[in-house]
Amino acid sequence: MIVQRRAVPAVLAAAALLLTAGCSSDDGGPAGADASASPSRTAPGSSAPPRQAGEETPPAKGSVTVVRTVAEGLESPWGLAPLPGGGLLVSSRDEGTIVRVDEKTGRKTELGEVPGVAAEGEGGLLGIALSPDFASDHMVYAYFTSAGDNRVVRMLYDAGKPAGEQLGAPDTVFRGIPKGFIHNGGRIAFGPDGMLYVGTGESGETGLSQDRDSTGGKILRLTPEGEPAPGNPFSGSPVYSYGHRNVQGLAWDTKQRLFASEFGQDTWDELNAIKPGGNYGWPEAEGKSDDSGFRNPVDQWSTAEASPSGIAYAEGSVWMAGLRGKRLWRIPLNGTAASAEPQAFLEGEYGRLRTVVPAGGDRLWLVTSNTDGRGAPEDGDDRILELRVK
């Protein structure tokens, strides 16, 4: 049953981990497991999809240059939201705080702690996004795990207050998303249509993904107030697409087409082109399927090569951050199909990669994730990097 609540007009105001043999964590394998022999990236007998006519395609080969380290010493960073006037807001999964990073100096200022965050396993304070009307309403949206569910809240950001007191009381926009020790989803983003898109996980209960009355294992599309958005594929429902395992990446191309990354279990991680009402197969299908009732991914990777979290679109390609894979993937596109073989960059150089966000033009912000309990932190972890890509 879907549970939601219209937000009150804004005022200034452990689950046990049950894993069957072979069930993976957000790393594409049990916590602490090492990558062993893994299947090749492309399924036997498969080939790249044909190019779509009328699309300008990026070069088959691209490049990544690390321009600089923007900031160091971040604790379990998860979401990142660039401010329109400069500065980067970063959420800490385990600390439950949001900090502002000066992208020129790296200086960090804590805005405050989000009350009600229950950080455990893969849950905690996850994705953040700015209101489409941020210039006038100064609202920051956040997805977090509470004691009983995953939810989306919004908070007033008042930069004029002292550090640590700049976040207003959270106003719950949407509640009742299933929570678990694993598979909490967590990415949120406002689309080109001004609606709020929410990537959720099935919390380890695989049956939720195919249940359209559940918000687990879905991409949700909401109004900024938390109602099912007009034009959703299922009348009166917030569900936009279903059959997902654990969605942690959302991005749009220049033609307003939505893409999403998804964690596989043992075999295939996915990059999907999202269609309203589309069924992406989990748990009946993992990766590409011969079942015409399921939508196949744009491409797929072994879980040891990817375990993808955030994605961003820039220079004609989707850029996908890998946690267990410890690399940044470039997927050049022609429409909603891959136009060439994906390329891997930064393999093993910065450890686990969590979030990637457009920084304008050919630049990206990239956030590492080595202090989340599954990485091997080095001096300076975790970091925000500025990249130049093509």
Keywords:
2 domains, Neuraminidase, Quinoprot_gluc/sorb_DH_b-prop, single chain, 390 residues
Structure report:
Keywords: Oxidoreductase, Signal. This is PQQ-dependent sugar dehydrogenase. It is an enzyme of class 1 (oxidoreductase). This protein folds into two domains: about 75-320, TolB, C-terminal domain (Neuraminidase, 6 Propeller); about 320-390, no CATH class. The protein has one helix spanning about 135; strands spanning about 65-70, 75-80, 90, 95-100, 110-115, 125-130, 140-145, 150-155, 170-175, 190, 195-200, 220, 240, 245-250, 260, 270-275, 300, 310-315, 315-320, 330-335, 335-340, 345, 355-360, 365-370, 385-390. Strands 18, 19, 20, 21 and 22 form a five-stranded antiparallel sheet that branches. The chain has a four-stranded antiparallel sheet with strand order 1-25-24-23, with no helix packed on it. It has a four-stranded antiparallel sheet with strand order 2-3-4-5, with no helix packed on it. It contains one helix and 25 strands. The chain is globular and about 55 Å long. With about 400 residues, the chain is mostly beta strands. Helix content is about 0%, strand content about 35%. The longest helix has 4 residues, at about 135. A hairpin with a 4-residue loop joins strand 7 and strand 8.
